[in-house]
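I had to read the description of the data format several times before I understood it. The format is easy to grasp once an entry is in front of the reader. For illustration, here is how one protein appears when written out as sequence plus structure tokens:
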Amino acid sequence: MIRPRRSVLYMPASNPKAIEKARGLDCDAIILDLEDAVAPEAKETARAQAAEAVRSGGFGRREVIVRVNGLETPWGEADLAAVLEAGADAVLVPKVNDAGDVARYDGRLGRAPERTRLWVMIETCRCLFHLEGIAAAARTSRLSAFVMGTNDLAKEMGARQTPGREPFLGALGLSVAAARAHGLVILDGVYNGIDDAEGFERICRQGLDFGFDGKTLIHPNQIETCNRVFTPAAEEVAFARAVIAAFAQPENAGKGAIRVEGRMAERLHLAQAEKLVAVAQALGV
């Protein structure tokens, strides 16, 4: 099933007003955060509030994901237990390093509803050398999404977050490739410049060019731009429909490449067109 994930907003689960506000925002998904956005003394309160928010619902079409603390922390096990009992759409886990970590978290999801998925943060130097194995774990687990954690990655690498993200281009490209090789959703990392609208749009467009499904956000004022950038343009949808229609013609049934509106289209473009149209239909475009 194609489900839009253009804009995925982090909300600190320690803030009940933020949780309530999230129910009316025009983002595709909400991540109730128990990890980085929550101080140690507020972890238990945040856990209880996230679980209650999931149980109470009211988020409409939005997916609700809870980012838990890692199992190596004092809060990880209790976070997972609370989230699984509440029945979130997905659990987002931090700092996985290899397929073994995926299996460890997946083993904790045995009692969760069938629909509850496992999402993982791609944010450590070690995991970059195990991307293929991590993504391949989707075959035997609930793993369904990668989420880039560029802030943590920058910290580990000692890299600067330049306007063009040059230090991370390799990691971004390889992460997208690994995700696509195994049918995973992949979301770009956050942009820290809350008031830098021009810079944010530039990075959104870079993420779109890389092939990300959408972007994680840290502030509601980033939602509109993110949705606009990651929504297929009308002309793109129209051309995709033309490609689909052209290949459906009897005379093109055995052809690998045809001419559509003055452009060359191969069978691989047909698959891309079908996906684009499915996304557009899901968005009502």
Remarks:
- Residues 27 and 223 are 6 Å apart (CA to CA).
